[in-house]
Write a structure and sequence with these properties.
The complex is a heterodimer of chains A (380) and B (180). Chain A is α/β, with parallel strands linked by helices. Chain A contains 13 helices and 15 strands. The mean pLDDT of chain A is 95. In chain B, α3 crosses α6 (163-178) and α5 packs antiparallel against α6 (163-178). The termini of chain B are far apart. Classes of the chains: A alpha/beta (380), B alpha/beta (180).
């Protein structure tokens, strides 16, 4: 298992696929602190990054790891870190710093049972809201969530593309089911993602690294290339220097969020399965989508008209796509391994016009297809 | 409707069941071009504690990757057998290490008893390869993959320099069933 022989089908875990796809996407710097169930990402990159001239650093803790990838990114490298719940909590302050300083990077969180040390080896989806709101203050959130190994490969590459284009951290949110599941990866994918090329020849003349008026942020000129600029977690003007000017400060804060929210259509990424004319719409993501597929298939065999809505971008929430898919639905079933973090969002997106029923499971065992089927049939 | 074959390898942490599961899945998915998934459930301990490794082999897509109606259950400990035997299909196959599983629950399932750990210790001289002996027993008893596919997968997955030792253990597992 290595970076060579890409066309030969390989049997990999989701975590290994993320690590190898990151290299494929041009990542050349990883800093992290190993934690179950994400450790195989660090393990794989520690072996594979040096082969392509990349750098792997095991830092003293998760906060330092997050800070290191921000520094490496400012120096021009494509960077990532990987962690799980407790480490994701520790990284939050620095994630906010990357949002405010508009530094692109990819943060992988392979979710395990929480809160606190929780259940290290077992799956959960309890960090869905943390991935959006974990760091303080209004800030942008882009969160991608794979279900299968091909998803994991594709979304890793997409995460790097989005991070560069929007100059913001992108969270790649896996759960233990997807991170640890070993399955076959056949490359190239049917939908092989193209790498985003940074606009070349960015003018160094009058370079404003923090312009608020473009459609997207200007590409970051790496430090050390003769274009000095100021980098700070304080609200700042377009040069990067701190400001207490209320107008400039508000423009800075709004820009961070608007640059993402104004491109919701571009970021929306959903997989639909027979949603046209459905009576019941099942909403599931990550490892739970696999359970939901089984449930939906069984329900159809019983003659029910059931559609499946699987968001691959969790944030920004694809509300327009959901409204469209739920047009004919009389009920919506949300299956997730938390106490309803997405179910509330679904309810809100649909304006409480359709009953939303939550099938929730904690405790570390995945939701069984038959359990979701029971909710679809209204038996539980 | 596609054929779905559900396997659970169970025992204690540190017995190499996760590796055995990956090898079985790789033999099916890479060398025989079927679909296969392997997943696991284990505790936070490095050794000891209950461990299980699950393999689904199918000629169709595999959505839910966990085993719930087992076609095959391997038990290397009595505890695992007591805990999981209820998940076996009525016509499923139970494979046990005859040294550690003495008390076999009643059922309509078929049973293969093999001296898995004993063969590893006495004929290979390394108890650590009991997982490969078990793999040989499984392949001989089920023919779920060809022995050759399993051997290629073993050689690709085990630590370099130990291929021969592991393949030897696998072949002794095959013989333990075929020889009878």
């Amino acid at each position: 298992m290595g970076t060579e022989d890409k066309s030969v089908p390989r049997l990999l875990t989701g975590n290994e696929a993320v690590a190898l796809a990151a290299i494929e996407a041009g990542a050349r710097f990883f800093a992290g602190y190993p934690i179950t169930p994400s450790s195989e990402i660090a393990e794989t990159l520690s072996r594979e990054l040096p082969k392509v001239g990349g750098v792997f650093i095991q830092m003293e803790d998760e906060i330092a790891a997050m800070s290191a990838i921000i520094g490496a990114s400012l120096a021009g490298a494509r960077t990532l870190t990987a962690t799980s719940g407790p480490g994701f909590s520790l990284k939050q302050e620095a994630i906010g710093y990357a949002c405010e300083t508009e530094v692109p990077c990819v943060v992988v969180n392979v979710m395990r049972g929480g809160p606190s040390t929780g259940m290290p080896t077992l799956p959960a989806q309890g960090d869905v809201m943390q991935a959006k709101w974990g760091t303080h203050g209004d800030h942008p959130a882009i969160v991608l969530c794979p279900e299968r190994i091909d998803d994991a490969w594709e979304l890793t590459i997409r995460a790097f593309n989005i991070a560069e284009k929007f100059r913001t951290p992108v969270i790649l949110l896996l759960d233990e089911i997807v991170g640890h599941l070993t399955e076959k990866l056949v490359l190239p994918l049917k939908k092989q993602p193209k790498l985003f090329d940074l606009p070349q020849n960015v003018s160094k003349e009058g370079y404003l690294p923090y312009r608020f008026d473009g459609e997207y942020p200007p590409p970051l000129i790496p430090v050390g290339q003769g274009v000095p600029y100021h980098v700070t977690g304080l609200l700042h003007d377009e040069t990067g220097f701190p400001t207490n000017d209320p107008d400039l400060a508000e423009r800075n804060a709004r820009w961070l969020v608007d640059k993402v929210e104004n491109h919701k259509d571009e970021l929306a990424d959903v997989e639909l399965d027979e949603v046209d004319g459905c009576d019941i719409l099942v909403f599931a993501y990550g490892g739970c989508a696999r359970s939901a597929r089984g449930a939906v298939r069984m329900a159809r065999e019983k003659g029910l008209k059931v559609g499946l809505f699987k968001p691959r971008t969790l944030w920004p929430f694809p509300e327009k796509e959901l409204q469209e898919a739920a047009k004919t639905a009389k009920r919506v079933v949300v299956a997730e391994m938390n106490l309803g973090q997405m179910a509330h969002e679904v309810e809100w997106a649909l304006g409480r016009s359709i009953p939303v029923e939550l099938h929730s499971k904690l405790g570390g065992e995945p939701i069984l297809p038959t359990e979701i089927l029971a909710t679809i049939e209204g038996r539980d | 409707m596609s054929q779905r074959y559900e396997i659970r390898l169970s025992g204690a942490g540190g017995q190499g069941l996760i590796l055995a599961g990956k090898i079985l899945a790789e033999a099916a998915a890479i060398y025989e071009n079927k679909n296969a998934t392997q997943s696991q459930s284990y505790g936070p301990e490095a050794r000891g504690g209950a461990s299980r490794s699950e393999v689904i082999i199918s000629d169709g897509d595999i959505d839910f990757p966990k085993a719930s109606a087992l076609d095959l259950l391997l038990c290397l400990t009595q505890e695992a057998c007591d805990k999981y035997v209820g998940d076996l299909k009525a016509d499923g196959l139970l494979i046990i290490d005859s040294r550690f599983v003495k008390d076999i629950p009643e059922g309509t399932f078929r049973i293969t008893r093999a001296d898995i750990s004993k063969i590893a210790e006495e004929k290979v001289g390394r108890s650590v390869v009991a997982n490969m002996v078990a793999l040989g027993v499984i392949v001989a008893a089920t023919r779920i993959v060809l022995p050759d596919s399993a051997e290629r997968a073993i050689s690709g997955r085990v630590p370099r320099g130990t291929e021969e030792l592991n393949v030897k253990a696998f072949r002794l597992g095959l013989q333990a069933v075929n020889g009878k």
